[in-house]
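Protocol step 4 of 5: obtain the predicted structure for the target chain.
Materials: sequence only (see below). No template structures provided, no constraints applied. The aim of this step is simply to have a reference model before the mutagenesis design in step 5. Sequence pasted as it appears in the construct record:
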Amino acid sequence: MHGLEHALLAVAPLLAGCDKQDLGSAWYSVFPDTLRPAVFIFDRTPGGVGLSERLFESLFTWIKEAYRLLEGCECVNGCSACLMSSLCESNNEALDKRSTLKLLRQMI
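Step 4 output (C-alpha cells):
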C-alpha cells in the first residue's frame, strides 16, 4: 500500500495541475473503519481547492499513468525516478515495486 501511495503521488501533480507539496497522503495496510487496505490522497490546503476531486474524476487515467511510470522505469526495486519520494515521512521503507505494479495492474 505504501508503494501504491507513492506511485499515485508521483503522477498526481501532472493530472491535478499542482505542485507535489500541494497534496497530502496516508496509507493503511488495514484501515480501522473498513478493516481493508486504503490509500488517501488529499489537498493540503485547509478546506481543499479541488485537487483531490480532479484526481478522483480522472481515477482510471491516474492509475494507468502510475502503472506506466513504474513499468517504464528500468530499476528493479524502485528508485527516486519512479517510487521513492524525498517527502516520505517513513523514509521510503516498505516500498515494493513488484507488488505495487501487481496491485496497479489489478486495478486497471
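Step 4 remarks: The first helix runs from residue 2 to 16. Helices lie at 2-16, 51-57, 59-72, 97-107.
Proceed to step 5.
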